[in-house]
Amino acid sequence: MRALVKKEPRSGAIVLEEVPEPADPGPREVIIKVKRVSICGSDVHIYEWNKWAASRIETPRIIGHEFTGEVVKIGSDVRLVKEGDIVVAESHIPCMTCYQCRIGKMHVCRNTKIIGVDTDGAFADYVKLPEVVLWKIDPSIPAEYASVMEPLGNAIHTASVANLSGKSVLITGVGPIGAMAIAVTKASGSAPIIAAEIKPYRIEMAKKIGADYVINPAEQDLVQEVMKITDGNGVDVLLEMSGNPKALVDGMKAVTNGGKVSVLGVYDGNIEFDMNLAVFKALTVYGITGREMFKTWHIATQMLKYKQLDLSSVVTHVLDFEEWEEGMKMMQNGNCGKIVLKVND
Length: 345
Ligand SMILES: [Zn+2]
Ligand SMILES: [Zn+2]
Fold this sequence. Notes:
Elements: E1 2-6, E2 14-18, E3 29-38, H1 41-48, H2 51-56, E4 61-62, E5 66-74, E6 86-89, E7 92-93, H3 99-102, E8 113-114, E9 126-130, E10 134-136, H4 143-146, H5 149-159, E11 169-172, H6 176-187, E12 193-196, H7 200-209, E13 213-215, H8 222-229, E14 235-240, H9 245-253, E15 255-263, H10 276-280, E16 284-287, H11 295-305, E17 315-320, H12 324-333, E18 338-342
Parallel strand pairs: 11-12, 11-14, 12-13, 14-15, 15-16, 17-18
Antiparallel strand pairs: 1-2, 1-4, 3-5, 3-9, 3-18, 5-6, 6-10, 7-8
Helix pairs in contact: 5-6, 5-11, 6-7
Bound molecules: zinc ion (2 copies).
């Protein structure tokens, strides 16, 4: 079969090549024929071989974790899916034995293995996975959208900290997940939705998806602008998606007293900020990782099945599998939303 393999521990060194198909599934394993995959920022990090990739990944490794496909073979004890089902997958494989897994918090499992990072991934014709991570979806959901349900789940999970109906929201950072967060908050009835972004392509994307206001913090004062829009109150909820320390601090300043701060952004090393900002404003700050298994997946499925989300301006490019490197390069320059690759029909 074809697979995109990180061959060696250095920058580049990814090759689309023929490799053996996965061996027969174990009792609780499933083989899936991959239809669409989408390129994640972490795939680009593996391509570039940043510090995180170098510390975590052993080569050779088939990469990729955002995908949809069809079940083609199941192990003898598999109960969650059957042959012919269309599935997506949670990228975090829980151990099912640690404290968190046992109390229903699999998404913060202490022994998580990540598909395409710690185990062979989905940038291939076939992928073999434990049934526990699989989620059957309605075949009416377009494959291009199904393949981005994992990052969509990040957006839904980040937005889940508050009842958003009629609430003002600030979303800092409009990468693909920030863009999906705009769609999610819109569908949840938030108003106004204020986005903050500095890159021209992404400012346009934020407007297209339905942000009521887009502030460019490189040219405008974020806090002042938010206060103007909200009659001096500040927003009810901040969704911090950028990983930029200034966005976090200014974002917190722009939240109303007693408001909520939900942080998905990942910061490059230690950051400094005045904790009293949270204390005296009585803010509630949430750290968000992954998706809740499988509550978030259920919500994502319902929202897509009943067309509550228009992802047409988030999934900006659909390329052939062979064009993967072009996709990686587009991701590097940031002039795109989600890039989906067609692996099989
Ligand atoms: Zn991802
Ligand atoms: Zn666990």
